[in-house]
Amino acid sequence: MRLPSAWIVAGTAACLGTALGGGIPMFEASLRPWRAGDFSPAATQPTGPVPTVDVPETQFAFGTVGVGATGFHEFVIRNTGEAVLELTRGATSCTCTVSDFEQSEGGSSNAKVVPPGGSTKLKVQWRGKGDGGPFRQQAGVMTNDPRRPQVAFVVEGTVVPKFKTVPSVIALTKISAGTGEQVSVKIFTFGTQQPTVDSLTATDEKTAQLYSLSSAPLEASEVAAEKGASGGIEVTADILPGLPIGPLRQTIRVVLRIPDEVTAEIPVEGSVSGDLALAGKAWDSSHEVLSLGTVSSRTGAQTTIFVTAKGPYREDLRLVVRDVVPETLKVIVEEGKPVGSGNVIRIPLSITISPGSAPSNHICSPQAPAGKIVLETAHPDSPTLTIPVCVAIVP
Length: 395
Hints:
Elements: H1 6-31, E1 53-54, E2 59-66, E3 70-79, E4 85-92, E5 96-99, E6 111-114, E7 119-127, E8 133-143, E9 150-160, E10 163-166, E11 170-176, E12 181-189, E13 196-202, E14 211-217, H2 220-224, E15 231-239, E16 246-257, E17 261-273, E18 276-279, E19 283-284, E20 289-296, E21 301-309, E22 320-325, E23 329-333, E24 337-339, E25 344-353, E26 360-362, E27 371-376, E28 384-394
Parallel strand pairs: 2-9, 11-17, 20-28
Antiparallel strand pairs: 1-3, 3-7, 4-6, 4-8, 5-7, 8-9, 10-12, 12-15, 13-16, 14-15, 16-17, 18-21, 19-20, 21-25, 22-27, 23-25, 24-25, 26-28, 27-28
């Protein structure tokens, strides 16, 4: 018997594969009713009277809603059919809820009925969440209309914060201890009325007396330039001379009413310079800290940093150690010497962690704040010098 050629076998297999590949999806599709949005045109045709859902609108552009505030919109649902329309709650997005399933309208907490020719209102509520930005929320309602078994209602808009500070942080890269500076920040509000200021304070009591704070309403043109803002104020801080040399950390707290009470906190960060400066291998100038890292109490550690002094009072500088954290740091002020032509005096500080020191953690994290070395200087513009210390002493 003569066998069929390989070409004939391959061709037959290809034809069968094509037929099966196309036929199966067509068969499956014939078993599923197709839908267009909320509608099911292929639904089984009823034999008696049926309800008919008529919704004038399914989408509403709300505009703006404040963070934490609640907005709502009422959608109208009509029954233009010949049978009672039954509505039940469907799925909703996370911050959206459907209410108005009232028993007074013949319904329950989760369902309601609409007679032929009647109508009802459906309240869709949502809450502004996050830090602000566009939102789009959806709420579904199930019906017994065979052509429209569910209706999706959509609300969209923009969530706006209750207030916005510009800039969010006051950054002072270099401020002179002997001269001071003036800085300002704008606070835009998104409430129902113009903001009023209840209080203005500098929260760090150590330097609070060097901050003179004031506020004034923003011009209408400035408010209009900020999208969605309804009002605003400008906070001005006059920073007086006398800040300690080193890292600058302060917070300006503003309590506003718009009309509910809100609190805005504006960080003030940077560094204070003057006739005194620090240098050395362990001195981290980018973060303005003495970085000793992790030290074993079995071996201990030793380093030297330098206090440099310039200006007319450099010869009068007298460094005295007044406070050390952790106490296991031993700080010795050595003899100062002029550098170069003598316009700068350099004073070494010998810092030692002796073997057998008690464990401690001041690694400069939120859970383990920095230690410190506090020096009296006898300098009229900078009477104290505080050196932050990042160190962890382990067994």
